[in-house]
Amino acid sequence: MADKLNLYGKAFDSRLLVGTALYPSPAIMRESVAASGAEIITLSLRRQSPAQQQGKMLWDYIQESGCQLLPNTAGCKTPKEVVALAEMSREIFGTDWLKLEVIGDDYNLQPDPFGLIEAARELVQRGFKVLPYCTDDLVVCRRLLDVGCEVLMPWGSPIGTGRGLMNKYNLQTLRERLPDVPLIIDAGIGAPSQACEAMELGFDAVLLNTAIARAQNPVLMAGAFRLAVESGRAARNAGLMLKRQTASPSTPTLDMPFWQQAVSEGEKA
Amino acid sequence: MQLMVNGEAITIQPGGKTVECLLQQLGYQGETFAVALNGDFVARDTYGEVALNEGDSVDIVAPVVGG
């Protein structure tokens, strides 16, 4: 049976979602997204005058990419701002998928759990398919499910820090207590090994941007993340061994040569 | 009439009574932008009906890269 990622009724082969920001050039961004194998990409909206053509260039790429678009509400601090930006995103991008961000702290870009739940409730009522960028708090996650979110995106660590999975206990708790909810680690992943670890822990997918875009060779790094996510997923499906406190030989001990001899010499001593 | 458009004060010509008039005066074309008036979304098919008033704040946004 194919191991698909199912989100809001759509099935995807790739379990790596990538952002489109911070790349050295639009060309490297396009090549990196392709190398990552991602089928879902994040975007945003910003003020623009008619003279600026970046919006048009990006729009042309979006049309060609064939990816599921996941517009974000980055920078929003209140549910009112979120709803307005979400509606504008839906109109422009033609999708009701939304990466919901409500920022509660400018210093570590931590999601505001209260604003998040309020905004998610309103957006679900307006027909959006909400993927909230949230903290790893079990109760907050449950509240987001209660208001109609079908996918959750807890942070690994603050956006752009590259610190990986900061609180593995909380993340493992989420996985164990919400076994049937698609969980995507969003933000804080800095290295392929960290993405692999998230997948080994049983997370359904990983969303990242900076770790690829800010690599010295973004295209090569995109491929590295692709392999890491695939590897971690395969490992999870295969079933990891349990950790042990003491050593246990992997080579058979039976019929070890010299064994008798060593015992004999020991007896002599 | 004085308006704030994308955070900048502008004066629009007489006759610029609706969002549609404003967009025409400013030169916005195509469908790769969206509009909010005083923080509320304005749907594209209502541009011709939504009236502007002195001091209104208009945001006009377009796709950008994002994480």
TrEMBL record, chain A:
Listed under subunit, the entry gives: Homotetramer. Forms heterodimers with either ThiH or ThiS.
Where found?
Cytoplasm
Respond yes or no to whether keyword Electron transport is given for this record: no
Question: Which protein, by its recorded name, is this?
Answer: Thiazole synthase
Domain annotation Thiazole synthase ThiG: ranges: 7-252
Q: In which pathway does it act?
A: Cofactor biosynthesis; thiamine diphosphate biosynthesis
- Which organism is this entry from? Microbulbifer harenosus
Entry superkingdom: Bacteria
EC class of the enzyme, as a word: transferase
**Reactions catalysed according to its record:** [ThiS sulfur-carrier protein]-C-terminal-Gly-aminoethanethioate + 2-iminoacetate + 1-deoxy-D-xylulose 5-phosphate = [ThiS sulfur-carrier protein]-C-terminal Gly-Gly + 2-[(2R,5Z)-2-carboxy-4-methylthiazol-5(2H)-ylidene]ethyl phosphate + 2 H2O + H(+)
Q: Which gene encodes it?
A: thiG
The alphabetized UniProt keywords are: Cytoplasm, Schiff base, Thiamine biosynthesis, Transferase
Q: What does this protein do?
A: Catalyzes the rearrangement of 1-deoxy-D-xylulose 5-phosphate (DXP) to produce the thiazole phosphate moiety of thiamine. Sulfur is provided by the thiocarboxylate moiety of the carrier protein ThiS. In vitro, sulfur can be provided by H(2)S.
Q: Where is the active site?
A: K99
Coiled-coil spans are none
Protein family per UniProt? Belongs to the ThiG family.
Residues that hold 1-deoxy-D-xylulose 5-phosphate according to the record: G160, A187, G188, N209, T210
Gene3D superfamilies per record: Aldolase class I
Record-listed E.C. numbers: 2.8.1.10
UniProtKB/TrEMBL annotation, chain B:
Pfam family, any one: ThiS
Q: Which domain of life is it from?
A: Bacteria
UniProt xrefs under InterPro entries? Beta-grasp_dom_sf (IPR012675), Mopterin_synth/thiamin_S_b (IPR016155), Thi_S (IPR010035), ThiS/MoaD-like (IPR003749)
Q: Supply the CDD domains for this chain.
A: Ubl_ThiS
Record Gene3D superfamilies:
3.10.20.30
Q: Which NCBIfam families match?
A: thiS
Listed PANTHER family: SULFUR CARRIER PROTEIN THIS (PTHR34472:SF1)
| Protein name listed in UniProt | Sulfur carrier protein ThiS
Species assigned in the record: Microbulbifer harenosus
Q: Which gene encodes it?
A: thiS
